[in-house]
Amino acid sequence: MDLWTLSLRILLLPSVLVFCADLFHSECYTVSGADYRGTQNQTSLDSGKPCLFWNETFQHPYNTLKYPNGEGGLGDHNYCRNPDADVSPWCYIAEHEDGVYWKYCDIPTCRMPGNLGCFKDHGNPPPLIGITETSNKQTIQTCITLCRRQRYKYAGLESGFACFCGNNADYRKHGETPSTDCNSVCFGDHKQPCGGDGRIILFDSLIGACGGNYTKEAAVIYSPDFPDSYGSGKACYWTIQVPGATLIHFKFTFFVIKDSRDMVELLDGYTKQVLVRFDGRNHPSQSFNISSDFIILYFFSDQINQAQGFALVYQAFKERTMEKPQLSNQTQTELITQTANLSINAARSSKILYVITTSPSRPTGQVPGWTIYALTGLLILTIIAILVKALLHLNIKSQRLASPTSLDSCHRGSAGEIWSIFYKPSTSISIFPKKIKGPHDDRNPLVGE
Ligand SMILES: *[C@@H]1O[C@H](CO)[C@@H](O)[C@H](O)[C@H]1NC(C)=O
Ligand SMILES: *[C@@H]1O[C@H](CO)[C@@H](O)[C@H](O)[C@H]1NC(C)=O
Ligand SMILES: *[C@@H]1O[C@H](CO)[C@@H](O)[C@H](O)[C@H]1NC(C)=O
Ligand SMILES: *[C@@H]1O[C@H](CO)[C@@H](O)[C@H](O)[C@H]1NC(C)=O
Ligand SMILES: *[C@@H]1O[C@H](CO)[C@@H](O)[C@H](O)[C@H]1NC(C)=O
Ligand SMILES: *[C@@H]1O[C@H](CO)[C@@H](O)[C@H](O)[C@H]1NC(C)=O
């Protein structure tokens, strides 16, 4: 590892931490934002239209008179919601001369982990340059499955029926656009957003995989084939093994399993003992902790009653006893005792507990110790401060994009304006027919006049 990379990694630490915290507290885990319960009350933060109050939209089908018990998140407020299985949250707006009476909301905080965003596609070159496939039965997962089988990291959808696969980690240079640009419905499932004309919606191809191995400190695991419903006869294993963790916090942010024989289990990774089991009758009610560094997640479905499945968020915690080495004698002794007790309780493999020194998204085994980092970092910072200032932007971007295997949104950032300055747009894609869709076309049969 050269000194430049080292110094950058140190600089990046705070932002990486923030992004991973976002992952655990993301405001949406479904692709359509049906679970959005946030408080954005205008269609866009950037000069959007104000939303009407759901307790005052009695001329429209969705209001608190017809849905008095908070169905779909409606209530005495004017926040964007998706109560009708549309592709994204929306709200009624004060009608104007064009007869527009509702609009999708562009909510930056409402993006399921693994949805990398909506980007421009100028066509030459397209953001993903692997394979392409079109289908009039396209869904997000049919595209992701195609890309994952061909071992591509990213799957992208456009115009409702076109699927692109690629490993182009620099997709951001094409420019991010509002999520509402990507709200064309998928031809195979009208509840899912599948990009737009010259707009590609990108996904991490690990979403909805049947099985996988996780070593990150925090991630989201989706049921097989998510956001499509899980298929019949699935048996999937995921391992969650976070080196040095003493405790793993779990939370089902989403759990739709109706069949009592379809189930999710968490097993102790070492003894293979079942710790908890949830199924169509026994739903998880709250978050829970397991004192271990190795857990196996198991999912099983039988031949009938498939449903959408689950999203399981986990976050591993490590001991932080040595953060302040200069302590009084007494406190030090206490801490040592505490550490010993915890390691007895938690570490089945008598692993030595160590201090958090690296970014949470990196397996710690590959990284040198804290001292080297700190000392070298300080040195580097002093010597090349000016250089850093000049080049920071570009390198941070490329650095973030360098680890695309993550399912989380740790690498979420702003659109690549710097890059787009150098990017020469070419003519737009012409192979796709223009889909007739405007603000007036109300594709939602439930939202009537
Ligand atoms: C939206 O919410 C903000 C903060 O809660 C409030 O200040 C603003 O007046 C609201 N706007 C509308 C149109 O209700
Ligand atoms: C709707 O709810 C808001 C917020 O509680 C309240 O200010 C308003 O008066 C309500 N409107 C009606 C018609 O009840
Ligand atoms: C996970 O790890 C196990 C054991 O190392 C391996 O057999 C399996 O193929 C891995 N699964 C994936 C999806 O990488
Ligand atoms: C799980 O552990 C975390 C971190 O120690 C703690 O903040 C949280 O309250 C615990 N949750 C439960 C349900 O025990
Ligand atoms: C810490 O312990 C040493 C001996 O082990 C003793 O000499 C010293 O005074 C102690 N310091 C404090 C702050 O208690
Ligand atoms: C550690 O465990 C011992 C007994 O096993 C107990 O006496 C002591 O209070 C515990 N310490 C802490 C910090 O929990």
Brief synopsis:
Residues 112-206 form the WSC domain. The protein has 449 residues and is α+β, with helices and mostly antiparallel strands.
Label this structure with key terms.
21% strand, 449 residues, binds 2-acetamido-2-deoxy-beta-D-glucopyranose, six-stranded antiparallel sheet, five-stranded mixed sheet, disordered N terminus, alpha+beta, disordered C terminus, 6 helices
Helix content: 10-25%
Small molecules bound: 2-acetamido-2-deoxy-beta-D-glucopyranose
Low-confidence stretches: 1-21, 322-367, 388-449
β-strand number? 19
Strand content: 15-25%
Number of helices: 6
InterPro entries: CUB_dom (IPR000859), Kremen (IPR017076), Kremen_rcpt (IPR051836), Kringle (IPR000001), Kringle-like (IPR013806), Kringle_CS (IPR018056), Kringle_sf (IPR038178), Sperma_CUB_dom_sf (IPR035914)
Main location: membrane
Pfam family, one: Kringle
Function: Receptor for Dickkopf proteins. Cooperates with DKK1/2 to inhibit Wnt/beta-catenin signaling by promoting the endocytosis of Wnt receptors LRP5 and LRP6.
